[in-house]
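sanity check this record:

:::
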Amino acid sequence: MQFATCDLCDANEAKLADGSLAILPPVFLSFGKRSRFAGPAATLKVFEDNVLVRAALETPGAGRVLVVDGGGSLRCALVGGNLGVLAEKNGWAGIVVYGCIRDSQELDACDIGLRALAVHPQRSIRKGVGEAELRVSIAGITVYPGDWVYADADGVLISRTDLN
């Protein structure tokens, strides 16, 4: 899939104006082999607990992007190297984490795209608390299951519809 987020913004100014296309704030770091990725969103809401993240990545990704609302926590990691390998194996296009990752070098070797706020060496708790496939808020931007995520070196876009 070839696209540039800058070109998508230029071609969809009316959608930016009406809110059906939004841009995540430029606070995300890039990891993984894919600097550019896109796909429909699967959403999770968790807080310092990655059990549901693993459960989602164990399912067929079918080119989707897992969008994880981790509440912006910088106290532990929600995705690590093992989950990156799982995401790649199961066909996920990418992961956007409103929180931290760990094992950054391992994740950089995975053929997925990944955006996160920061790197943190501590793993999360594992209680299985959270919700899946619901409206989430990522850095103040609302993401619904099925919204389209477009990410490249210039930013991350959230669109209510497929722009290609």
About this structure: The mean pLDDT is 97. Residues 66 and 95 are 5 Å apart (CA to CA). The longest strand covers residues 37-45. The helical segments are 5-11, 13-18, 51-57, 81-89, 104-108.
